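FAQ: What does the model actually see?

It sees only this:
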Amino acid sequence: MSFYTSLNGLKNAQSSLGTIAHNIANSETYGFKRGRTEFSEMVAGSANANPRTIQGIGASVEAITQNFSLGPLEQTGAALDLAVTGDGFFTLSGENGETLYTRSGSFTIDESGGIVDSNGNGLRVFPVDATGAPTGTTLQTLQIPAQNAAGAAYAGVAVGKDGVVSASYADGSVEPIGMVALASFMAPNGLKPVGSANWQSTGFSGEASYGEPGNGQYGALLSGALERSNVDIAEELVGLITAQRNFQANAKAIDTATQISQTVINLRT
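And it is asked to produce this:
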């Protein structure tokens, strides 16, 4: 049994190494949240067994949890680089109609006037009136008009701390065109990572609740800044050494069990 107990230990150490390697590989990924491998003990014993003689049979991976603590903020100066100072997520409309959530606020304007991320997913906003006040709670994909009602051409865009996106035009007018909608979850650790620093909601995370930037737990917006990965390289390297030592210790346990087995097999009567 010691062989399989140590084999589980080897597999667990590999899982831990894989998680740490993933964290280190994404240390420069905007909006990335580090993961942590958690283990649980396995025991076996019948209902009538003496509890003082029940033997452990190893460990298993309990969960790979995500740490959603705020990462460092990097000033970029670009108007459509956005960072959230609270727990909120940007809401994106995927190319296939799916709803995505992200902490990476690196946006650009596409050829049709939509505000999109690097993968072409559109930023979703609340509709607003002429004063910038929300007029409804139904989210829509933001689209910047190429001209205003007076026929003046689009000149630029700005995003306020309150999330209001304003387009400026050649005639000097500035018009609110939407308010960035931030999503919050009861259990963000239940979100499903889908790559590119994006997540999707699941039954474990609960449904998203939407709110305005600067309101409660959602956090305010910072224009001209991006949230960097919350990976701490020093901490990951210490974890890497620990996982390596665990792997070596379990391999040594297998080697010891092999030597004992060989000794028993070579016994002579």
